[in-house]
Amino acid sequence: VAPHQVVIVPITFGKEKDAPVLEKVDAIEKELKAAGVRVIKDLRDKMKPGFKYSEWEMKGVPIRLEIGPKDLEKDQVVLVSRLNREKYFTPMAQLTNRVQSLLVEIQDGLLREAREFRDAHTTRVSNYDEFKEALETTSGFVGGPFCGDVEAENQIKIETKATLRCYPLDQPADAAGACFMTGKPAEKIAWFARAF
After folding, report:
1. What is the pLDDT of residues 61-104, one digit of tens each?
2. β-pairing, 6-10 with 39-41?
3. 82 close to 57: Cβ distance less than 8 angstroms
4. Rounded CA separation 25/189 (Å)
5. Which end of the chain is more exposed for a tag (fewer CB within 10 A), N or C?
6. What angle in degrees, to the nearest 10, is found between the helix axes of 128-137 and 150-160?
7. Helix (H, G, I), strand (E, B) or coil at 154
8. Are 179 and 149 in contact (CB under 8 A)?
9. Could you tell me which residues are beta bridge partners of residue 81?
C-alpha cells in the first residue's frame, strides 16, 4: 500500500567524498527499481539526516536505506525497518534479496499487529443489554448475530449513538442465532461502533 517501499537517505557532508556516495545511491535506486521495488531518494542537502528519518517514518515508508562514506568502504548499506526500528547492516551483494525479504517480514508483522489490535478491541454480545454495557466499558467494535432489521438498526443508533460498521466477509461458523437486538433469527454477525 505504501507509495514508496524504500527511501534512500545518503549521509553526505557537502564535500568531495559525497560524489561516490551519490553515484552509489543512483546505482542502488536502479537495482531496486529493476527488482520491482518502489524506491525514492531523499537528496535534500539542507536537511539533517535525523529530520529526514523522522519525516519518512511519519509517512510510513517501510524501509529506510542509509548509506554514507563509511558504508561505501565496507561495501554495505544500513536498512532500518519501520516495524521494529531495527538496523540491518547489509552487504551490497545481498541488498535486493534482503530488501525483498524484509518487505515481506514488515508486511506480515504489521498485518499481525493490526489483527491482534482489532481482535482485542472487538466484543461479541448475545443481547441488547450486553451490547449497551460493552459500548460503555470497551472501545472498538461491538456486535453479534443481527437480523438486519432497519428499524432495529435505527433504534440502536438513536439509543446508543453506535452505527453499523460491517458484516464481516468471513462469517464465523456460529454466526447464525437469535438477533442480539430483536431476538429474531439472524444469519450474520454485524459489528457496530461509535464515531468519535
Report:
1. 999 999 999 999 999 999 999 999 999 999 999 999 999 999 99
2. parallel
3. yes
4. 51
5. C
6. 40
7. helix
8. yes
9. 63
Which neighbouring-strand residues pair with 190?
A: 144
Q: Are 159 and 148 in contact (CB under 8 A)?
A: no
What's the mean per-residue pLDDT of the chain? Answer: 94
Q: Which grid cell is 188?
A: 450474520
pTM score, two decimals? 0.79
Q: Which of 182, 37, 34 is nearest to 99 (CA)?
A: 37
Number of Cβ atoms within 10 Å of the Cβ of 25: 21
User: d(Cα 1, Cα 83) in Å, to the nearest integer?
Assistant: 15
The one-letter amino acid at 178: A
Q: What is the largest CA-CA distance in the chain?
A: 77
- Secondary structure (H, E, C), 35-77: CCCCEEECCCCCCCHHHHHHHHHHHCCCEEEEECHHHHHHCEE
- Locus of grid cell 443489554: 129
